[in-house]
Each structure stands twice: as structure tokens, then as C-alpha cells.
Amino acid sequence: MHKLTVPISDEEIRSLHVGDTVHLNGVIMTGRDAAHKFMIEHFIRGEVQPEDAALHEELKELLDGGVIYHCGPVVKTHEDGSYSFVAAGPTTSIREEPYQGDVIKHFNLKGVIGKGGMGDNTLKVCQEQPAVYFHAIGGAASLIAKAVKEVIKVNKLEFGVPEAMWVIRVEDFPVVVTMDSHGESIHKQVEAQSQAKFAELIG
Q: Is the domain defined by 2-202 classed in CATH 3.40.50.2000?
């Protein structure tokens, strides 16, 4: 079991291998399709406009050595205007494959949390960066929400609650490394084994 506190160093990332269990602590951010598309179009492949400059600087500081969580949370709004997470299960990550490598490089991300794994481009960038992919437990949204101790703020709430960028503080957030910085991917291993078994069955 590894305990990591965000921001995470390159050395800590290089020490991780597929199959390692990790408890994450610190401040991370949620981001799904709308958030990734926005970051690509407004920060990475396009010129940062004055109205977006403050958010860009905020995210550069927040995500430097940081972690993005592919999650569309269920959020409760309290009478004082504060928020809390009711459910925080992972979203299928492959949807972000067209964006993820560029986002990792631009912001110096060290980790991405989701479910189902990602593709070859993200794996390649994880080796170069370095970074890792953390698999969160699907179907345990309420349990995972208990690791979210504080909702610090929300950006781009106009995207809708599931697609907004929620900045959260987590304690002992449970994940497993399934893509590491050494080029290993449990997801690719499972795919290869499944294809071999399928060929055997129909052969």
C-alpha cells in the first residue's frame, strides 16, 4: 500500500507499478468531457483569451504535480451555499483519450483517475511525463464520496454539475495503478489475453 499526497513528485510516480494499491490525499479536480474539451480549445491548442487567463493560471498551479478525476458527481447544495459530494463514482476514461495526453503534458499532471483504462497515446505520455493511471472502483460511488472531505470550489458550473470542474480535498481515496510510467498497462494485458482466448475458442 502506498500513501501519496498531492502534489506528487516524479520519483513517487516512478516508484509505482501496475497492481499497486494507493491511498491519495490532498486537493484534486474532477473533469470529464466538457472540461477536457474546454482545456484543449482554450488553453492548449488555442491562445488563452483575457477572460480565461485567471482560470488558466489557477489550473496551472492546481494541476502541477496534481490529479484529475474522471467523475460526474452527485452534489448536495447546503443552505449556506457550500457543497458536499453524495456520490463520486468514476466515469469511463476512454472518452478522454483524444485529449488526455495533451492535458497531462500542459499541466504537468502526475495522475488520472477513472475506470476502464486509456489508450496507447496516454500510456506513451505517462512514460514521458511521468504519470500514472489510477483505476477507481466502479459501482462504489457512495463509498468513494466518503473520501471527499471538502468541496473547495467549483469552476465552470455552467457546464452542468456532472461536467463542471470540482476542486475537492480527499483523504485516503482508494485507487489501483493500472497504467504505470514504465509502459505497463493491465488493460492491454487483459485485452491481449481476451483476444488469445477468443481465438482459441473459435479456432
A: no
Where are any strands of DSSP class E within 70-201? Answer: 74-77, 83-87, 111-114, 132-135, 148-155, 165-179
Looking at the annotation, which residues are catalytic?
Answer: 36
193/196 Cα distance (integer angstroms):
5
Domain ranges in the chain are 2-202
SS3 67: strand
Query: Is 10 exposed, middle or buried, given 0-12, 13-18 or 19+ CB atoms closer than 10 A?
Result: middle
pTM: 0.91
Return the minimum-mean-pLDDT range out of 123-127, 131-135, 140-144, 172-176.
140-144
* Length of the chain measured in residues: 203
Neighbours of 62 (CB within 10 A): 22
For residue 10, the Cα-to-chain-centroid distance in whole angstroms is 17
Tell me the β-bridge partners of 162.
none
Q: What is the DSSP letter of 179?
A: E
Phi/psi at 32 (5° precision): -120, -145
Question: What digits encode the pLDDT tens for the residues 129-140?
Answer: 999 999 998 766
Please name which of 183, 155, 149 lies closest in space to residue 168, comparing C-alpha atoms. Answer: 149
